[in-house]
Write a structure and sequence with these properties.
Largest sheet: 5 strands, mixed
Radius of gyration: 21 Å
Oligomer: single chain
CATH topology of the largest domain: Trna Endonuclease, Chain: A, domain 1
Order of helices and strands: EEHHEHHHHEEEEHEEHEHHHH
Distance between the termini: 42 Å
Helix content: 40-55%
Structural class: alpha/beta
Strand content: 15-25%
Strand order of the largest sheet: 4-5-6-8-10
């Protein structure tokens, strides 16, 4: 008999071990590790458990068998710990894209045809200009819906109309929604219709947010378990957002920025090494 679990959006569904298997493999687990985790979790599933309960069990088990895998499995939660406001997420997206060869600017005021607009991230590559609206959510089960897509596209149309008044403007413009959660099916359908680019959690199927992060190991510092929340916030406020940036800073800079001793700094560096190796 299947147990019913409560999803983060409040819906109730049957526990599906294949979904858990897929999420583990997406996080880097091999088949043996994924099957071992499921074998540990399945007999412990109880009626009415939440997906958060199952996540905690998975993290606890993975931490015992493969610390690096446990860290990677916690990526979505780590991004949600950037909040409560979305400004750090905007800077995170900007830093990710810059490493992929884009020239990026954050929080630009751009004159539209009708009104001025604050654009979260402007990314440029060759003759292409991407006007990016970042929608950050720090609660599971929160989706970007069609109203969000409509709003972003309306702003994009107004900006491009102003740009195209300049005869010498030969750039190609694309509107873009970047979010750390998922989008509703209507939002995706509308975005596809108007050519609004979306990068979300698990969407599109290939070059989604996880791909951009995992492909170059662009993890946020909030993924590190050796850091306390206050320390993570201190790093964010110091514009140290990527784990790679913290690695480059080195132990001395960590000691200075976080006001910690050498042993604590070396512990942080060791966890970074595990994650990035």
């Amino acid at each position: 008999m299947k147990s019913h679990i409560i999803k983060s959006d409040g819906y109730i569904e049957d526990f599906d071990s294949q979904k858990l298997m897929n999420s583990l493999i997406r996080s880097g687990a091999d088949i043996k590790q994924a099957e071992s985790t499921i074998a540990y979790i399945k007999p412990r599933i109880r009626e009415g458990m939440s997906t958060e309960d199952i996540y905690r069990m998975a993290i606890g088990y993975l931490s015992r068998i493969e610390h690096k895998l446990a860290l990677k499995y916690s990526l979505k939660k780590a991004i949600m710990e950037m909040g409560p406001q979305g400004y750090i997420f905007e800077k995170y997206i900007s830093k990710i894209l810059s490493i992929y060869g884009y020239h990026t600017e954050v929080g630009q005021i751009i004159k539209g045809y009708c009104v001025d607009h604050e654009v979260d991230v402007v990314a440029r590559k060759d003759d292409q200009v991407f006007l990016i609206e970042c929608k950050y959510h720090n609660y599971k089960g929160t989706y970007s819906d069609v109203k969000t897509a409509l709003y972003i596209n309306a702003r994009f149309v107004d900006i491009v109309k102003a740009f195209k008044k300049t005869a010498s403007d030969n750039n190609k413009y694309t509107g873009w929604l970047a979010t750390n959660t998922k989008c509703t099916s209507d939002a995706i359908k509308y975005a596809s219709c108007v050519k609004l680019k979306i990068i979300a959690w698990q969407y599109p199927s290939k070059e989604n947010l996880q791909y951009y992060i995992e492909n170059k190991r662009l993890y946020p510092v909030s993924i590190l378990t050796s850091l306390k929340k206050k320390q993570k916030d201190t790093l964010f406020n110091s514009d140290i957002i990527l784990v790679q940036e913290l690695e480059s800073a080195g132990p001395e800079k960590i000691m200075q920025t976080l006001s910690v001793g050498k042993s604590s700094a070396l512990k942080i560096m060791n966890e970074i090494k595990i994650l990035l190796e």
